[in-house]
Design brief:
Elements (H helix, E strand, L loop, with lengths): L4 H11 L7 H16 L5 E7 L6 E3 H4 L10 E6 L2 H14 L11 E7 H10 L5 E7 L15 E7 H15 L6
Parallel strand pairs: 3-5
Antiparallel strand pairs: 1-4, 2-3, 5-6
Amino acid sequence: MVRSLDEQALSLLQQQPPTGLPPQAIGIAVDMLGELARQLGSLRYFVLRDRAGGWGVFEWSEVAPQESALQPGTWLAAYSHREAATALQVRANTRNAPSQQIHADALEVVELEVLRILWLGLALGKAEGLLFCDRLQTPLPTRERDSRPSIQLTALRCRDLKQQLAMALRRQSPPPVA
C-alpha cells in the first residue's frame, strides 16, 4: 500500500531515523522534505541496495545515458517504475567483474517511500545527490525510431539539501537574547 505524504511524514516524525539532528529540528526537516516531495512524480520509488546495507550509487551516465548534461560524482538513482531499476541492476551485473568491490548480483531492488529517500539525501556521504527518474504519463514527442519511454529527471544534490535545511533551521531559531 502506498502511503500519502502526510502518512510518510508522520512515520518519519515517530521513528526519527538517525541524522544527528536535534529532536526539535526533525519536524522542520520533514516539512522541508515534504515540500520537495510534492514536486516529484511519485509517492514511492525503487532504488538499488547491496546486501550489506549500502546504497547502489552510479555515475550519471550509467543512470541517464541519454542526457547530454553529465553531472560529476555518483548519484543514488530512484525510479518510479521497478522495471527501470531492474534494468540498471542488470547493466551493473554485466559490468561488474568478480574483482570489483560491489558485486551486482549482491544488489537488490528495494521500494522506498519518497520522504525516506529524501531523508537519505541528508545522510548520504559518498553520493553527490539523488536522481529521481519519473516515467511521464504523456510521452514527449520523440523521433519515430526512439521507443524509449519519456523520463523526467530531477536531480537533488545532497549538499543543497543540507544547505536548505540549515537555512530553514536558522529561520526557525529564536534571535539571540542581548
